[in-house]
Amino acid sequence: MTTRNETKNLPLREEPPLLEIRHLHTHFATEEGIVKAVNDVSLTVREGETVCIVGESGCGKSVTALSILQLIQGPHGRIAGGEILFGGRDLLQAAPNDIRRIRGNEIAMIFQEPMTSLHPVLTIGEQLTEPILEHRPVSRRAARLEALDLIRLVGIARPEAVYASYPHELSGGMLQRIMIAMALSCHPRLLIADEPTTALDVTIQAQILDLLRRIKEERGTSILLITHDLGVVAEMADHVVVMYAGRIVEQAPVLELFRHPQHPYTQGLLRAKPVLHRREPRLYTIPGQVPSLAGLGDFCHFSDRCPQASDLCRSRQPELLPIADGHEAACWLYGREVSAP
Ligand SMILES: Nc1ncnc2c1ncn2[C@@H]1O[C@H](COP(=O)(O)OP(=O)(O)OP(=O)(O)O)[C@@H](O)[C@H]1O
């Protein structure tokens, strides 16, 4: 079968990505100066794709996610520039009412600590039905049945009992499942999950990751997953974005990133990941720590921790540039023509 484009001998047009962040800058005014928590970040999430943002604490992962939903707290915090295109439309230009509609309806977010996102004196059932009733014209009875289905979908065996429970009566793993059920209640096209398994023990962590994978496969939901755990990245990601000090330092499809990490920071993160059957006297850690993001100058911000840093790295910021197909890194090691500063 030929498509119209083939008969006309034109290349097939690619669907626009579901989410495209272009040159995003998010700043906080602090006593130490302007903190550039997100500094010129561009990334893409396609339909049905899982993109993981990885990096140590304080690299700007959560602020990137909060910026998408415009949950940056003013007056100290603000989005200072860039575009966030969702389905081709710039969210930064959308009216507050539109953003409220998109939040929950088309983009949903789950956080690290489910307890802080649930109301302690409302039952799980009340909290699950409320967003359904708010966003869609359905009866209370239909919303209840839908909520019970969602509880079942996230792998809870006795939905009625959980429906009638209060948050404090459930375990951390159950609460995180409920958070996922709430996020799914309006069939979002994009699910943003910020360290959704960090507070859970490893068995429950694996179950929650399984659940997210199943949702992606069965519903075609795109996922933007934030984690500091490369094990989670290996299991979940199609594409990986590595952030350091508010900037993207490397991004690539998952296999490419694990096989050919290019940036010394990514290489350090991978070296620091425990590997089964490889005994080392002590687990490697990257020396030093993420710098404060206030008033950083024009140089590679990883240079003071980098085993391969040169004078050039300490005097100019490298740009994020292509290395291979779909693979980009911001590092002076990769043979760029350098003009005198
Ligand atoms: N409300 C705020 N006011 C001032 N600085 C902030 C604020 N929120 C975040 N930051 C700063 O922005 C930077 C990035 O923070 P962010 O929470 O995005 O990091 P992260 O990579 O998600 O780390 P973690 O895994 O610990 O959440 C940090 O230096 C942080 O101190």
TrEMBL record:
Domain ABC transporter: start-end pairs: 21-270
Keyword annotations of the record: ATP-binding, Cell membrane, Membrane, Nucleotide-binding, Transport
Classification via Pfam families: ABC_tran, oligo_HPY
InterPro entries: AAA+_ATPase, ABC_Ni/Peptide_Import, ABC_transporter-like_ATP-bd, ABC_transporter-like_CS, Oligopep_ABC_C, P-loop_NTPase
Record SUPFAM superfamilies: P-loop containing nucleoside triphosphate hydrolases
Lipid bilayer topology: Peripheral membrane protein
Example GO BP: peptide transport
Keyword Plastid: no
Domain of life, per lineage: Bacteria
SMART domains to which the protein is assigned, alphabetical: AAA
Localization of this protein: Cell membrane
Gene3D superfamilies: P-loop containing nucleotide triphosphate hydrolases
A GO molecular function held by the record: ATP binding
Cellular component terms (Gene Ontology): plasma membrane
Family designation: Belongs to the ABC transporter superfamily.
PANTHER family in the cross-refs: DIPEPTIDE TRANSPORT ATP-BINDING PROTEIN DPPD (PTHR43297:SF2), OLIGOPEPTIDE TRANSPORT ATP-BINDING PROTEIN APPD (PTHR43297)
Protein name: Y4tR
Source organism per UniProt: Paenibacillus mucilaginosus 3016
